[in-house]
């Protein structure tokens, strides 16, 4: 096999990992377009996903895997470093892409805050199954906390509001069903409490339902109309999130090689597009929600290219594993 044949083969494998995710997102967008689903469906589906499906899935994956392999300080340091670097770079350069100073926080949040909970986990699950979800669980939990703190800081700084305080953020983190599920799973795992088979089977059924339903909801919530305004900062923030972030991650993986499946998981987390939660927070703080929405839309659909090529390149470099 020639080198070009090998590259195309790897791209085909990488595309087989990423394309099902974007097909389901596109299906959600189309179903919303033809009015088969609506905002009420998306609202109820989101409540089921975030309050029941994902917490149970994360609990059982955390509780049932090797405890020593779940906690890895190197993994945490790499994903934290990637996030902090993107945050600092976007803070320093935001003024080059925005006209209104109030949009700085919206731009910065869109540049660093990834959709780990849905798309990050979906990529990990598609590539590595339950093992990938288990490896992603603790880094994801830590980064979610960091995301919230950094988002509050940058949005408050540019919008000059105290709507989101540090105390409220900490309260929200403690009460977050995903964090509760992960912490409960770690406690069960560390104490070696047995998990009844009926719970494992029920969780498996929920896991099979949760991520596809979440992807449909994301697709249904994306609005492709009115894409002309705020396009320049939206493109720039999207480049930070789906190009700069994975490049930094790849650089760190070259400098600090780790186990190849874990490397793949960290790449997917770093390369995931902007989180839909960023829109919700901006909307609540009376910021430029139109810009926030455009960053989500652009980064989500362009990431099918960046994630696919990045995954194939890392496999070619023998930095990450295939399933």
From TrEMBL:
It is found in: Cell membrane. Its main location: membrane. The keyword Transport applies. Keywords: Cell membrane, Membrane, Transmembrane, Transmembrane helix, Transport. The chain crosses the membrane at residues 6-32, 44-64, 70-94, 106-128, 134-155, 176-193, 205-225, 234-256, 262-283, 295-321. It comes from the Bacteria. It is a multi-pass membrane protein. Pfam families: Mem_trans. The keyword Transmembrane helix applies. InterPro entries: Mem_transp_PIN-like, Na+/solute_symporter_sf. Belongs to the auxin efflux carrier (TC 2.A.69) family. This is AEC family transporter. It comes from Thalassotalea castellviae.
